[in-house]
Design a protein that fits this description.
- Helix content is 36%, strand content 17%.
- The protein folds into two domains: 7-96; 103-393, Alpha-Beta Barrel (TIM Barrel), CATH 3.20.20.70.
- The radius of gyration is 22 Å and the shape is elongated.
- It has helices at residues 3-6, 8-21, 43-50, 53-64, 80-89, 91-96, 169-185, 206-218, 236-240, 258-264, 272-285, 305-315, 339-347, 353-365, 390-393; strands spanning 103-110, 116-122, 127-134, 139-142, 146-148, 163-166, 191-196, 227-231, 248-252, 290-297, 321-328, 369-372.
- The protein is an alpha/beta fold.
- Helix 7 (169-185) packs across helix 8 (206-218).
- The chain is built from 15 helices and twelve strands.
- The strands form two sheets. It has a ten-stranded mixed β-sheet with strand order 1-2-3-4-7-8-9-10-11-12, covered by helices on one side.
- A hairpin with a 4-residue loop joins strand 2 (116-122) and strand 3.
Length: 409
């Protein structure tokens, strides 16, 4: 009986699980397996496995620089014993000799403005999408938290897919790592910002989103204020569960009036006042006390001065600084078999720049900071609301075992 060979790797993995769980938040089991991955193991959880905080920091310094410690980029100063412990704790990565095992990224379309769609092929054959958005001074990555989405927003192509499954933290962080490598390859400005505004509803996959966000801060050394998690707010309870996220929060409001909101987000089960009050409670307990609010503007539906005033009245009781970001509707082509969405698509139009400016001016006059998001990547189907892929769409008709729409309380 060889204890050194048979037992030690098992003990290492058990210690690793205990370390990841140490902060007090339960670790949700991956939807594609229960192996712990290095990408989803922040330095504080890795240190006990490598028997050294400095070793863990050296490994994560390598990863944060876009290098692969399981390839040719293993830090030499890590030492032979620590490298052996790393391979034993993460056998899947060690066997394939790569960090992002089960997450194979490929560059898709590149828009004229440099916005890049990255196609993320997962080990079960599904595919998620992420978007790299470079500006003059920095690069932002828009990551997905699920394949598909249960929220069924009428203006969003991801909503047409339904929810296929949630991503685990390793798969979310694999998008970030792939984006860093692509930004370096193309000599883009540094990747400093992450927005959870890709495919999926983060509140429906909160455990994995929380672990991914924590690792972005601890491991990738991104600033808390440079990471934003956006939610439609499925329920007051789901909103209050976001309080502990080490990120900025964003609320996809889209309409202040309940009847209009239900047209745009058909799975809405609570009044906007109920959802607003839940955010108010969360913000009152958070130190940053700020909220980003997103509104997808659709011509003739939610883009009038009346709608702007209603939005101002809804948001006024929120504590702290509320910033409103207007997103003029980005058209997409729904599946012909999706008749309701095809009919909505036929009716939806992008409001004119003048209409958007009037909406913005009303909010300015009501005391709100209000910006208009420039449409990036529309010519490569990478803009907000356009993320969906045919490989996963073909499986979207299967019944989902994931989170159903929030029930009324």
């Amino acid at each position: 009986f060889n204890m050194k060979v048979s037992v030690v790797p098992w003990l290492l993995r058990a210690a690793l699980l205990a370390a990841v769980l140490a902060p007090g938040r339960p670790l949700a089991v991956s939807s594609v397996g229960s192996e712990v991955r290095l990408l989803a193991t922040p330095p504080s959880a890795l240190a006990p496995v490598l028997a050294s905080q400095s070793r863990a920091q050296r490994v994560w310094k390598t990863i944060a620089e876009g290098l692969d410690p399981f390839g040719m980029d293993m830090p030499q100063e890590l030492g032979r014993e620590a490298a052996k412990l790393l391979r034993e704790a993460f056998p899947l990565e060690a066997a394939r000799g790569e960090l992002c095992t089960g997450v194979d990224a490929a560059v898709g379309d590149v828009a004229a403005d440099g916005t890049t769609k990255i196609l993320v092929h997962l080990q079960d054959g599904l595919m998620a999408e992420t978007v790299l958005i470079p500006t003059d001074s920095r690069t932002t990555i828009c990551v997905s938290s699920q394949v598909g989405c249960a929220r069924a927003c009428a203006f969003c192509s991801t909503g047409a897919m339904g929810l296929i499954r949630s991503l685990d933290a390793h798969e979310i962080l694999g998008q970030l790592f792939a984006g860093m490598q692509e930004a370096q390859r193309r000599e883009l400005p540094p990747l400093t910002n992450v927005v959870f505004m890709g495919m999926g509803e983060p509140a429906d996959n909160l455990e994995q989103v929380h672990l991914a966000a924590r690792t972005m801060v601890e491991g990738f050394r991104l600033g808390n204020s440079h990471i934003s998690v956006s939610t439609v707010g499925p329920s007051p309870e789901a909103i209050e569960a976001l309080e502990s996220l080490p990120t900025r929060l964003a609320w996809s409001v889209h309409a202040a009036e309940d009847d209009v909101r239900r047209v745009l987000v058909p799975t809405t089960r609570h009044s906007m006042v109920e959802l607003r009050d839940a955010f108010a409670r969360v913000l009152a307990r958070r130190r940053d006390r700020g909220l980003f609010v997103e509104v997808a503007l659709v011509e003739g539906l939610n883009d009038s001065p009346h709608h702007a005033l209603a939005l101002a009245e809804l948001l006024r009781p929120l504590p702290g600084k509320t910033r409103v970001n207007l997103l003029p509707y980005n058209p997409f082509a729904p599946e012909a078999s999706d008749l309701p969405r095809a009919q909505a698509h036929a009716l939806f139009r992008t409001p004119s720049p003048e209409t958007v400016k009037t909406f913005q001016d009303v909010l300015y006059s009501e005391g709100f900071v209000c910006t208009v998001r420039s449409t990036r990547g529309a010519d490569s189907a990478s803009a907000c609301g356009q993320l969906a892929n045919r490989a996963s769409l073909s499986q979207s008709r299967r019944p989902s075992k994931e989170v159903p729409p929030a029930a009324s309380s």
